[in-house]
Amino acid sequence: MPEGTAIYIVQRGDTVDSIAAGYGVSTETIVRDNQIIYPYELALGQALFIDLGTRQPYRSLRVSGYAYPYINETVLADTLPYLSELAIFSYGFTTAGELVPPALPDDWMIAMALQNGTEPILTLTPLDDQGRFSNYLIHSVVQNQETINLLIDNLLEVMTEKGYLGVDIDFEYILAEDRDAFTDFVWQVAERMRLSGYHTSVALAPKTSADQKGVLYEGKDYRALGEAADHVLLMTYEWGYTYGPPMAVAPLNQVRRVVEYAVTEIPPQKIDLGIPNYGYDWPLPFVRGETQATSIGNLQAVRIAIEQGVPIRFDDASQSPFFTYVLAGNNAPEEGGGGNAVVAQGNIAAIMHEVWFEDVRSYQGKFDLIREFELGGCGYWQIMRWFAANWKLLYKNFYIEK
Fold first, then answer.
1. Is 83 in contact with 132 (CB distance < 8 Å)?
2. Among this protein's residues, is 172 annotated catalytic?
3. Mean pLDDT, range 348-355, rounded to an integer
4. Quick one: how far is CA 172 from the chain centroid?
5. CA distance 199 to 165
């Protein structure tokens, strides 16, 4: 743990007042830092961030966060002091190389970022009309030099006009046959950006070996992309995801495997560790093709545990908090279809649920991994929800590069 910080796990009979008295800090500080709402109920097993006042950060860290233009202005204002880069999500493009701007204006976000000394970053994504990553769109562009030239020209024009200071290339589901062409595309973008005083980052699927099979992995050459870009983001999240079985979103044991491979291909100072700012709630039992998890915020997860009167547990292998609960049928969400486990509660049908999310324990585990491997930064997907304890803990661990 960084100096001046403690993580307290709520025990039976604890109150905010008793915890504050035990550490000699104010109740108001614990309530504020952990966003505890009146009447200040706590969940058994809940992890609380305790600020003991002193601070001696380890070293500086590059911190990025993705955000959509519909982010709440107050949430963005609160988060920007903790960010080196604000990656605005996102600009698309056509097969002809024309840029497609976000559905909502991004100028206000760029202005707020610059006012806070945070670099606004244009995120470039190959999304189709349905909002899905399109490898057809990627193929059409990276295999056509004339289209590449036009797309880069358009990027530079928009960046200069709006005040962006860098570009983040977030291409997913790249065809194996387009692997080298995509690498060459990133090289060309990065070189043109550097000539204009901008920098380039690229998002990487969480590989654990060079020859890893799968549509997420085969199109990305870690070593070559690490050489081309100024820095990279390891997308070390979504092990637990909407259509998959219940599990941690970013299990530390799996994240470690990705980092261990990445540092053999890319200089550690170029690597940003991806960090999720959300969790999932699954109805049980899980049935592939039927069960669908609901994305929830970390604070929302704790509120569910409090409202349902269930303890929060912690999985040592994944270094992640989780819990299960039974939701009465009248309040049960519609997601999940026929895969729900219906149990009896008197005469009311009920559905079992399993929740995995992030807390200060799981975040500290990721910060410790950054320290261990001397990584250059971290990147949050995404910052749409304000989770104060994470940012307070990050601030205790590192200086934020500005």
1. no
2. yes
3. 86
4. 16
5. 7
CB 133 within 8 A of CB 125: yes
Q: Which two tokens stand for residue 310?
A: 């269930």
Across residues 126-147, what is the average pLDDT?
Answer: 96
pLDDT over 70 (residue 386)? yes
Q: What is the DSSP letter of 248?
A: -
Sign, Cα dihedral of 371, 372, 377, 380: negative
| Residue 330, pLDDT above cutoff 60 | no
Q: How many residues does the chain have?
A: 402
Mean pLDDT computed over 175-192: 98
Q: Which two tokens stand for residue 101?
A: 């701007």
Contact 165, 119 (CB under 8 A): yes
How confident is the model at residue 350, as a pLDDT?
Answer: 85
What pLDDT, on a 0 to 100 scale, did the predictor assign at position 230? 98
* Residue located via tokens 């500086």: 60
Q: Name the nearest CA neighbour of 64 among 214, 271, 288.
A: 271
Annotate 152-174 with b (16+ C-beta within 10 A) or e (fewer). Answer: beebbebbeeeebbbbbbbbbbb
Average pLDDT over residues 364-378: 98
Query: In which band, very low, low, confident or very high, does the pLDDT at 127 lie, cut at 50, 70 and 90?
Result: very high
Kindly state the greatest CA–CA separation across the chain.
70
d(CA 15, CA 302): 15
Task: Answer yes or no: is pLDDT of 248 > 50.
Answer: yes
Q: Which residues are within 8 A (CB) of 77 and not within 5 positions of it... i.e. 6 or more apart?
A: 112
Burial-class residue 133 by CB neighbours within 10 Å (0-12, 13-18, 19+). Answer: middle
If DSSP codes are grouped into helix, strand and coil, which group holds residue 1?
Answer: coil
Strand partners, 244: none
Q: Of these residues, 85, 119, 172, 354, which one is catalytic? A: 172
